[in-house]
Amino acid sequence: MSQAYRTHHEAGTEGRRAASPASSWTSSPINSPINSLAVFLAAALMVVALVRPAMAEQAPPAWPGVSLDPAIPTVADVLGYESGSRITTHADMVRYMQALKDAAPDRIKLFRYGETWEGRALIYAAIAKPETLARLDSIKQDTAMLADPRGHDDSALKAAKADLPVITWLAYSVHGNEVSGADAAMQTAYHLLAARDSQRVDSILENSIAIINPLQNPDGRDRFINRFRIHKGVEASADRLSAEHNEPWPSGRTNHYMFDLNRDWLALTQPETRGHVKALRQWMPQVFVDLHEMGGDSTYYFAPEAVPYNPHLTGDQRDSLFLFGKNNARHFDRFGIPYFTRDVYDAFYPGYGASWPAYFGAVSMTYEQASARGLRFRKSDGTELTFRDSVQHHFIASISTLEAAAANRARLLDDFLDYQRSAIEEGRKSDDRRSYIFPNRRDAAGHRKLMGVLGEMGIEVQQTTGTARACGETVPQGAYVIDAAQPRKRMINTLLNPQVDMEADFVAEQERKRGKDLPHDIYDVTAWSLAKMYNLDMKLCGKPVDGPLVPAGRNRVTPGTLTADPDSIAYLVEWGDMAAVRLLAGALKDGLVVKATDETFTQNGKTWPRGTLIFPVGDNAATLPDTLKELAVKTGANVVGTASGWVSKGAEFGARSVHRIHTPRIAMAWDEPTSSYSAGNSRFVIEHQIGLPVTVIRTDDLKSALLERYDVLILPDEGWGGSYADSFGETGVKTLSAFVERGGVLIGQKGAVNWLADPDTGLLSTRREYQLRDDDAEKKDDTDDAMVAGTRIASKNALHAATTPAEERPDSIPGALIHARTDPDNWLTNGVADRLNVLVRGRGIFTPLKRDKGVNAVHFEGAEDLLSSGYLWQENRRQLAYKPFAMVEKRGRGLVIAFTEDPTIRAYLDGLGVIYANAVLTGSAHANPLR
After folding, report:
1. What is the three-class DSSP state of 122?
2. Count of alpha carbons within 13 angstroms of residue 559, beta-carbon side
3. Could you tell me the strand order of the sheet in which 480-483 lies?
4. At 409, phi and psi to the nearest 5?
5. Which segments in the chain show pLDDT lower than 50?
6. Which of 51, 707, 840, 912 could bond to 903 as cystine, CB 3.0-4.6 Å?
7. Per DSSP, what are the bridge partners of residue 436?
8. E-strand stretches of 320-359
């Protein structure tokens, strides 16, 4: 390493090696108090250095037997500590990657692909030999040709393949507290640039481009590191009980809005994921690996995955998993590193980072390293895992993966091209799902957003410009059409098909386990059809649509319009989609006077739905039309002026069913015992999808807070570590009861409903149910007696019955979409479709409210019509039938609103957006607070 480089980069910051202090000491007398203190501190630091744990003295992670170029800076050269001895912050990671680029600009390029909510840069690096790096633009063009071979002859495609490197994308630390990934990424980049006389690295650089995304979740990582440093003492503790290993709420796993970014690939709600997807589509890598951490008592996991596999993965993709798995095993065996495959982590749900790229043709894999969750961790078998160990293991897996990709360059490129060709051909031959048709008759904003999201994923969407025909039916003008005869055919099938089935033998095994009360092996939800989660009408046709079609725009929001009458006495906005919700929120922030009707009305031949917004001209400033026009353009809502308040049918603008909507002052319970996912996701939905700010109040403060300044209080789902009952106690019950009695709106979501419905709380009249029995006979639990009556067990079924507890909770649902029906006479369902799709997870089933207590505004469908998509245990199907999803109970001057499932989960149930907005935005208009 050159002296010039050292001089330029050795500025003194925390974690960086400082320049020698000798010159500054010579400017002061040797016996000065300051200098004496400096000498004392230096001596003390030397003593501390002598007693540091041995792990700090270990050599940095490296590949044995490889000589390294001293001109390429190590982590120690730039940051002042050996790789694996400290957990690197985001800022220092960026600084080190920049140092690598400065040292070898012909072999590494850095790219910025976005910015987090907290302002941290999202970057990735491309590493290759100089000749490859110099022609990245042409490589991207030729790769795009393989990714969409339509319009290219075989000779052009063959020529492109012959000259293309294989592209391997390694993504690290999507969960911020899975800390070894980012440091392993830095070490991998260093090794690729510094290794000399390494046939392995030479092959990687000759035949591939290594894309390294070192840190997918900077906000979560820095949150973890800050707390780890706070709790760390003079040396790192290996004790799992140490505060170093036990994160307070919220953990570093999630991003700023507490999203699990590894589940955001379907919805694309977060900047980290949207930027990542955009970058991937620019490169279209043939290999993608997402490197994670798991529990510290485990070992190392790599592909092949466990069953079930998504049926839309190809045989070539599944076969290629073994190329990488066997090469990883070869090196792990050589180095004595234990590992496992084909267990726990399946390939069914398409919304993971390691799943989504498979649907544009990549060989996509998850790697999992046991986590030290700090610098040292004592495993249950008594051995110790260090942070350096975990960095080393991820580093070895990274180099091994790059090696396997480079060695199989031709095969991987052939398979990648065949994937696209076969997808197009399958789409052309489809006998029932050639065309996905969205008539776009209801919820224009939802349609526009979904088509924008699909466009961001690279799916081609068209729109009819006139009347068209498909399978003997008329397709209206403005309908959206997705023809499956395109390279993204399997992605389309996966994301939009009403049902994706798991393997029958896998399901049978889960039913067998459930019969013995053993945990099932379903890793995530079993349903995710975006058409259903957006609650949009979709038709399938086995033929192309016949009619005028043009490419649909990719914007998630298209500008709305204002149609004014010169004599307008009011302006109307039809309620029923998120464009109207956004406009209402914007109007309230702008101080406009707005009302809404709970009844339909007909005016000039048009019927306006329940919830329609009314902006009276006389109650607003003269600038009302201009303000509404700006809001319409921004939000996508359409505004119509009317010259009369007279209606031919329904309620006039001054009827009792018309309510003034005031800007709701929204508070939310924060910190334990809330689920950080639910709290963060709900806050994101309100702040970014609805458009109003939320004040978050820690539960310890909330239970005795003066809440008069708030109109709406939201209790998110409970987390794993506690309960509202324990946190709030009697004081909290009194505080929240008083809030509601005075006219507040209290909204409970999923686990919070457990507490609201508890008789000791008394805020909601529903009750949780035990599991429904097949027979009505009451069981007497007399096992507390010293002896019990004798019994005869005549069969295996009788044994099962005899071992069944008298009372137990319903079986846990892994995640299915089920149908729910809305009550058309309750304000909470204003503008909401007659039928909804609700994601149901867990065990919570509640009794309906009695009519004298409240309203079951949304209830689940009957058993035969209940399942919309996914897999649902038969017993749950019977017991969930007609049970409530959304309830409204009046108490004093206020309201308690309960959602038995979380309507904001992962912010991807867009079809529930309007009902949630009704609760948050218009709930206080239906309470009776003293203003």
Report:
1. strand
2. 6
3. 539-541, 435-438, 480-483, 462-464, 549-551
4. -55, -55
5. 1-56, 776-778
6. 912
7. 482, 540
8. 346-347
Q: Which two tokens stand for residue 545?
A: 């649509």
Contact 151, 491 (CB under 8 A): no
Give the separation between CA 731 and CA 736, rounded to whole angstroms. Answer: 9
Question: Of 867, 865, 231, 851, which Cα lies nearest the Cα of 529?
Answer: 867
Q: Read off the amino acid at residue 294.
A: M
d(CA 343, CA 337): 17
The distance of Cα 202 from the centroid of its chain, to the nearest Å, equals 38
Per-residue CA distances from 43 to 19, 56, 236, 274 (Å): 18, 19, 22, 51
Number of helical H runs and strand E runs in the chain: 29, 39
Type of residue at 332: F
Whether the ω angle into residue 149 lies within 30 degrees of 0, i.e. cis, is: no
Question: Which residue in the block uniquely carries the two structure tokens 């293991």?
Answer: 393
Cα angle for residues 792, 795, 797 (degrees, 5° grid)? 110
Tokens at 660, concatenated: 């003034």
779: number of CA atoms within 13 Å, CB side? 14
Half-sphere exposure at residue 475, Cβ-oriented, CA atoms within 13 angstroms: 30
Inter-residue contact 486 to 596 (CB < 8 Å): no
- At residue 898, the 3 state secondary structure works out as strand
pLDDT given at position 780: 53
Of 695, 711, 702, 693, the residue nearest 931 (C-alpha)? 711
Contact 902, 753 (CB under 8 A): no
Alpha-carbon distance 833 to 567, whole Å? 33
Phi and psi at 487, nearest 5°, equal -55, -30
Non-local (6+) Cβ contacts of 349 within 8 A are: 310, 355, 523, 524, 525, 528
Question: For the segment 439-495, what is each residue's pLDDT rounded down to a tens digit?
Answer: 999 999 999 999 999 999 999 999 999 999 999 999 999 999 999 999 999 999 999
Q: Provide the b/e sequence for 264-301 (b: ≥16 CB within 10 Å).
A: bbbbbbbbbbbbbbebbeebbbbbbbbbbbbebebbbb
**For residues 745 and 748, what is the distance between their CA atoms, to the nearest angstrom?**
10
What was the pLDDT predicted at 781? 55
Helix axes 180-194, 387-407, angle to 10 degrees: 50
- Between strands 462-464 and 480-483, the pairing is antiparallel
- Which residues in 629-707 belong to E strands, given as ranges? 639-642, 649-650, 658-661, 666-670, 695-698
Which DSSP symbol is given to 810? P
318 SS3 class: helix
